[in-house]
Amino acid sequence: MRAFCAILLVALAIVVHANEQTVGVKGTLWCGKEPIPHSDVQLLVHDTFSDNVLMTVSTNGSGYFQLTGSRNKAYSMRTYVKFFFFCNPNNAKPDPNAKCTRVVRADLPDNIAIDGKNPKWYDMPNVVMKPDGKMPNEDQDCKN
């Protein structure tokens, strides 16, 4: 019983000590030399048991994206971005008949999450995907 109470007190202390942390990231998504318009970009935070989506946006017509997110954390947030896109040698535009979307994960630096509600913007100016060939940390998201 004492061990349980000690664990409960430690957990409560961590929760009480948690601060709101905010992260902001922006950039432009490219397929080689062409911007990738209308592709989904997600900002995620790694948690102990699962990862949580903080925000999802679509790139604009020029491939630009901007994401922010906040969480109450007792320790520094570990965040990353996922890009869902089409990129082949002939076309960077979504193909409505395609069964799979390419997905690339990009980890963000630990020091970009700051205490408070106003983000310190992390600039990913040119996120360039290879039109032919697999990127590091690439996977596929396929429709059934």
UniProtKB/TrEMBL annotation:
Keyword DNA-binding, does the record have it?
A: no
Protein name according to UniProt: Uncharacterized protein
* Subcellular location, principal: secreted
Signal as a keyword of this entry, yes or no, is yes
Q: Where in the cell is it found?
A: Secreted
The record's annotation in PANTHER family points to: TRANSTHYRETIN-LIKE FAMILY PROTEIN-RELATED, TRANSTHYRETIN-LIKE PROTEIN 5
Q: Which GO terms describe its cellular component?
A: cell surface; extracellular region
Q: Which domain of life is it from?
A: Eukaryota
Sorted alphabetically, the keyword list is: Secreted, Signal
The UniProt family comment states:
Belongs to the nematode transthyretin-like family.
| InterPro entries for this protein | Transthyretin-like (IPR001534), Transthyretin-like_sf (IPR038479)
